[in-house]
Write a structure and sequence with these properties.
By secondary structure, the protein is mostly helical. Helices cover 83% and strands 0% of the residues. Helix 1 runs antiparallel to helix 7, helix 3 packs across helix 4 and helix 4 crosses helix 5.
Length: 223
């Protein structure tokens, strides 16, 4: 019964959060990506603008559909993580869900973004494998550090938690040999801010919905 409740809450909350994330991205993030892509394709436009114009509608529809599908799947996956954490901690309800959503934002976006901020098309980066390894290690260290700070009582363990949080940033994120990008700096800053706000809304909404549905399903399930 607990597993069924967890799965249903994760599916519903993840789907709704994914749909909301897609809608916000279309308003705040996607226009900036499209604008950045114009700096990549300046040469291509000079050779065949008509062909590009006739296929732009199909490309936009495909982008929207793929974004919606990937966001829903990601929302369900992250909801399973949050729902499992809430269930194990016996902390249900939308208020507790908000806190777990905030923790998810810190672990999976904010902490990694300090070293590897969101990038626009045409922005140079370090080798992909190096970035992925640093991202995973930073997310893991942040999760462990937050857990030690929040759930441990001895001061020594809390101190270890702070140290674990800092380790990836002391080591430093992998950087490209030459920092360069085709898009102007103001556009990149707008993109980073928009991505941060969008992800914060997504995680807080996800946590709120997971906590709410876990409590609601638990209250209505047969004892």
């Amino acid at each position: 019964m607990i597993l069924r409740t967890l799965l249903i809450a994760a599916l519903v909350a993840g789907t709704l959060s994914g749909i909301a994330l897609t809608a916000i991205q279309q308003l705040q993030v996607t226009p900036l990506i499209v604008e950045a892509e114009t700096y990549e394709s300046t040469t291509d436009h000079a050779h065949g603008s008509h062909a590009a114009d006739t296929s732009s509608a199909d490309t936009d529809d495909q982008r929207l559909l793929l974004s919606l599908l990937s966001n829903i799947l990601a929302g369900i996956g992250f909801s399973l993580v949050v729902a499992s954490a809430i269930t194990l901690s016996s902390q249900k309800g939308w208020r507790k869900g908000l806190l777990w959503g905030a923790a998810g934002f810190l672990v999976f976006f904010a902490a990694p973004a300090l070293g590897l901020p969101p990038k626009l098309p045409g922005t140079a980066g370090a080798p992909l494998l190096d970035q992925q390894l640093w991202w995973i290690s930073t997310a893991a260290a942040t999760a462990v550090g937050i857990a030690l700070l929040v759930f441990s009582r001895p001061v020594a363990l809390k101190g270890i938690g702070i140290f674990v949080l800092l380790i990836p940033h002391i080591a430093g994120a992998p950087l490209p040999e030459q920092a360069q990008g085709l898009a102007p700096e103001p556009l990149l800053q707008q993109f980073i801010i928009a991505s941060t706000i969008t992800n914060a809304i997504f995680w807080l909404l996800l946590g709120l919905l997971v906590g709410h549905f876990l409590r609601k399903l638990d209250d209505t399930s047969p004892k």
